[in-house]
Amino acid sequence: MKQLELFPQFQSQYSVTSPALVMSSERLHSWKQRILEHQQSQGADQPRQGNLFELAPNPCNTDSIDPFTLELHNLSFCEKPDWGDRTCLYFVIDNELPLLLYIGETDRTPKQRWMSHDCHKYIANYIELHRRYSLNVSVAIAFWYGAPSNRKQRLQLELELIYKWKSPFNKECWQWWGQPFGK
Asked: How far apart are CA 127 and CA 122, in angstroms?
């Protein structure tokens, strides 16, 4: 015996959608300011405790990598032929302040990695919100090719950099900055 439905499914030609919440210009400015203050406190000009027993500087430690000193490329680099090593760390930066928005690692060419990345949506939403309020924005990407070829070491270095800079588009940092541009 089949149970009858008390309320049959009604198919309406109309749909109700919730409006997307949009961050105000003031909230955007405040959000960026909090990130900027943290990232400036992590800058290369900050004094660091040395290691008495370190024989030679380690080029793969978080203090020796300053994303803001790397050569910047516009996001249309994907349309150009592949260049550079396959193993690298990459940094998405809004050069207007500047803010470090995202840190990633790859052993594929940067073009291959970037073309399949969720960060595209976050960046597009970030830029769109700036355009909505007629705010300057200058998103670019930088590559650091000194990354270890060993994936475990590279992932560890990437994670250390993410926690150092607290880049807002990395999921590990959503606890501090929220997810205003994605998910």
From this structure: 9
67-125 confidence digits (pLDDT tens): 999 999 887 766 555 555 578 898 999 999 999 999 998 877 656 655 556 778 889 89
- How far apart (Å, rounded) are the C-alpha atoms in residues 162 and 158? 6
Q: Which domains does the chain have, with CATH numbers?
A: 66-177 (3.40.1440)
Encoded tokens for 124: 């597009």
Rounded CA-CA distance 72/141 in Å is: 6
Give me the sheet containing 139-144, strands edge to edge.
Answer: 72-73, 139-144, 88-94, 99-106
The token pair at 153 is 């070491």
Within 8 A by CB and 6+ apart from 126, the residues are 94, 101, 137, 139, 181
Q: For residue 26, count other CB atoms closer than 10 A to its CB.
A: 9
